[in-house]
Write a structure and sequence with these properties.
heterotrimer; A mainly alpha; B alpha+beta; C mainly alpha; B: alpha+beta; OB fold (Dihydrolipoamide Acetyltransferase, E2P); 2 domains; C: 81% helix
């Protein structure tokens, strides 16, 4: 197979330019969606029959938990591409994911605790779902630690890519923990084959939030990727042109 | 094999190896991973009854008995196949209700009564507005119907 | 209005949850933009160094 198109597509100047063009196209719709979803979720959606207004925490908890897992998938895929095709831009993309992913893992843990206390009766228990999500945070932190611990860029890329790929095992564990083992955490309401377990007026804000957060991640990640590319390619001649 | 194919093999190999190790490890520690045991597992002797463990299931309707003037209470946890009686002293979470999921942490006595020192409520993944819930209840003769498999009311 | 902020008695849990999420959203935008601006400034400085005549370096 001829892979030249792939490497041409993945050339740093090309990606730097495309990322700069695309970022606002993801960022602005993301902002609009998130603001609209905030209004819809906090004001328009009805309260839950059991949890009252407390259930509205779902509108920040579920999207951040989704991002934490989705970003890991993107990071590990980019790392694998970088490892297999020796593509520097893919390693740069993986590196730009880690910080954002770690942030939203923390957010999902904190919002989960704040939801768990009034409803379950505890901030934290060593439940399979909760523990697997904490492991996800450690995977992100380990990835970032490994990156900063190795000075040689090519070695740092390779070593951290292997760690990212090894950690993929945790993703199905997080997703299916509530089905494989008895868990205090409820089963997914939306991310399942069956139809969602809530009426449209509760579901719509959640879907808007999930889409908004996904686009938001794309925008932020592309800006980080541009920074990462510039840092890596600082002596390349195309940069002069890009800086004009 | 080209170098690229070798690297693909390496990545697939890492994934396969880690998955296998994960499956083996999680199987070996199954009992420790299990957050709670349901009444059927307790009846079958699968729960570590010599130690403290968590018992989970639904609160059987009509079994919640609160002693007036104290925090003592008792109720029956069921998975619709087996029942276990639980006694507890203390405050229960907001969502502790009849026909609702519950996880009790404590010890099983020789008399078969579970003495809990911590009660957590478990809710399901179904959300609905109060009016809808009322309509569902009316249709089912005044109680929220329960699906024993998912411990959740059926979709409307 | 105050009823809205009370959130049916869950204000003490709900608002911190929203606040921490909002914080993460804002912080990530700012750090990404700062990282990009810093990388550009650094690249520009290097370019200037390289185009400078030998004796002025």
């Amino acid at each position: 197979m001829n892979w030249t198109w792939f490497h041409k597509f993945g050339s740093p100047p090309h990606i730097y330019r495309i990322a700069g063009t695309l970022a606002p196209w993801f960022g602005w719709p993301a902002g609009l969606l998130i603001v609209a979803a905030l209004y819809a979720g906090l004001v328009l959606a009805p309260p839950d029959y059991q949890q009252g207004d407390g259930f509205r925490i779902i509108y920040v908890h579920a999207p951040s938990a989704w991002l934490s897992v989705m970003i890991y998938g993107v990071m590990a895929s980019a790392a694998a591409i970088g490892l297999i095709w020796r593509m520097k831009v893919a390693h740069a993309a993986a590196a730009s994911c880690a910080g954002i992913g770690a942030w939203f893992t923390v957010v999902s843990l904190i919002t989960g605790m704040l939801w768990g206390k009034p409803m379950w009766g505890t901030y934290w228990v060593w439940d399979p779902r909760l523990t697997a999500q904490l492991v996800l945070l450690f995977l992100y932190l380990g990835y970032m630690g490994l990156r900063s611990g190795i000075d040689d860029l090519a070695r740092s890329d390779r070593a951290s890519a292997v760690l990212a790929i090894v950690g993929v095992i945790n993703i199905p564990i997080i997703r299916y923990s509530v089905e494989w083992w008895n868990s205090i955490h409820q089963a997914p309401s939306v991310m399942k084959m069956d139809r969602p377990s809530m009426p449209m007026d509760m579901l719509a804000p959640l879907l808007m939030m999930l889409l908004g957060f996904t686009l938001y991640f794309a925008a932020v990640m592309l800006v980080r990727l541009r920074a990462e590319i510039l840092r890596r390619e600082r002596s390349a001649s195309w940069i002069k042109e890009a800086l004009q | 094999m080209t170098p690229r194919q070798r690297r693909i093999t390496l990545v697939v190999g890492i994934l396969a190896g880690v998955s296998l190790a994960g499956v083996l490890a999680l199987n070996a520690f199954r009992d420790n991973v299990m957050f709670f045991f349901d009444p059927s597992q307790v009846a079958a002797g699968e729960a570590p009854i010599e130690k403290r463990f968590r018992l989970g299931g639904m609160v059987r309707p009509g079994t919640v008995d609160r002693r007036a003037g104290s925090l003592d209470m008792s109720f029956v946890v069921t998975d619709f196949k087996q029942d276990v009686k639980v006694v507890y002293t203390g405050v229960v979470p907001d969502l502790f209700r009849e026909n609702q999921g519950v996880v009790a942490h404590g010890r099983l006595g020789k008399d078969g009564i579970f003495v809990a020192d911590e009660i957590l409520a478990k809710h399901d993944e179904n959300y609905m507005p109060p009016e809808v819930a009322r309509a569902v209840k009316e249709k089912h003769g005044g109680v929220m119907p329960v699906n024993p498999d998912s411990a959740a009311p059926p979709r409307t | 209005m105050s009823e809205f902020f009370a959130m049916g008695g869950y204000a003490a849990f709900l608002w911190p949850a929203y606040a921490v999420t909002l914080l993460a959203v804002v912080v990530n935008v700012i750090t990404a933009q700062r990282a990009h601006a810093a990388a550009r400034a650094e690249a520009r400085r290097r370019l200037e160094m390289e185009t400078m005549p030998e004796h002025e370096r």
